[in-house]
Amino acid sequence: MSKVRVHTISLGCPKNRVDTERLLGVLGKSFVPAEEAAAADLVLINTCGFIRPAVEESVETILAAIRELADVSPRPVLAVTGCLVSRYGQADLAADLPEVDLWLSTRELETWPGLAGAALGKKRLDALGPRRLSTGPAYAYLKVSEGCSHNCAFCTIPGIRGPHVSRTLDDLEREARLLVEQGGVPELVIVGQDVTSYGRDLGLKDGLQRLLDRLLPIKGLRWLRLMYLYPAGLTDGLLKHLAGLAGPGSPLLPYFDIPLQHAHPEILSAMGRPFARDPSLVIDRVRAHFPDAALRTSLIVGFPGETDAHFKTLKAFVQRTGFSHLGVFPYHQEEGTPAASLPGQVAQGVKTRRKNALMKLQEAISREHLSGLVGQRLEVLVEEPSPEWPGLHVGRVWFQAPEVDGVTYVSGPKVKPGRIVLADIEQAQSYDLVALA
User: Fold this and answer.
1) Domain coverage including residue 91
2) Taking a C-beta distance cutoff of 8 angstroms, is the pair 79, 116 a contact?
3) CATH number at residue 148
4) How far apart are CA 318 and CA 320, in angstroms?
5) What CATH number has the domain bearing residue 383?
6) Quick one: which of 12, 94, 169, 247 could link to 16 by a disulfide (CB 3.0–4.6 Å)?
7) In terms of Cα–Cα distance, which of 242, 248, 239 is closest to 284?
8) Per-residue model confidence as pLDDT tens digits over 125-162
9) Which residue has the higher pLDDT, 19 or 427?
């Protein structure tokens, strides 16, 4: 098969990135990356449609590609996939953007080989096969499930991605071994809309435990990180099992990404979230089993009905908990969600002020935590050379997840992308570290 030059843009979350990597894997050995859209045979844009800013970014990215390709001859095939297509439908989008040659929703990924082959004028493409990693030599995402079966009042994901559907244990173990044993990736990051629900639809009451029992013994796996842990799923039984798997020499990192969204019971109840009485319960539960755990959460400010008193409770919760990492997002009134029609919509300026107040507080918490690490020697997973400073590399210590947390800048003679090196922490910034190996 002749070479296919592909220019790829992947927007949104890590789960979307995995989809992009799978779509590129279809092209097999014929795939050749193209730095510029104009030099490609195929321009693939995988979109996000979760909230309004993501929709706007996706549409602008498509429009920018259309403008860039307007005078190119022969014109590359322009394919748009992902959550934007799933949310708004091919028919409506095609009417507004007729320049797009191929639309593909998140529920049509299996049809990609035939559709892409036809659009490219090829007789065939490979069957869906190994992913084409885009994350470099240091880590890879392992998506364990698709969709979500929760009913949070603000969320569009169930409507876009459908209900929770788990991949099989055998399938996940096979892919993990390819990534680690053959691909040489030292870190796997487990992702899904709700990782704690893994396996329930397969009839497994202890799906996540059984998955970890399969993955942790993989030769060459140095770090395994769990993301998107729904708070109600972090039971004492699960945490006890995780504690038994962790410890010296284990790849399992004591890193807990728990999207709590708020702290006041009235707002949590309106959101349709668990732990509506007190989200501190899940924090205390985790710390009882993992006293030194790194905790990340995401919070929404300005949800309909949120008063100054509600926000004061949330701010006090952040101060008291001392999260290692925190993401704060202003509420967006998304069409089709129950929260969109709720009374008490909060002004945009108030949302912005509340977000800024929480991030200012978190910056101080993070700086204090990182300052206490100066002088310590920690393992650093090296990702890539710094684009700005020759000899300096960008890496991460164990409590820094890729793409969402801070980084560790590291230099030294043994520093190389994909390696884990011992380094002395020499400097702490608000969210980043500087180290010498």
Assistant:
1) 4-120
2) yes
3) 3.80.30.20
4) 6
5) 2.40.50.140
6) 12
7) 239
8) 655 557 888 899 999 999 999 989 888 999 988 888 88
9) 427
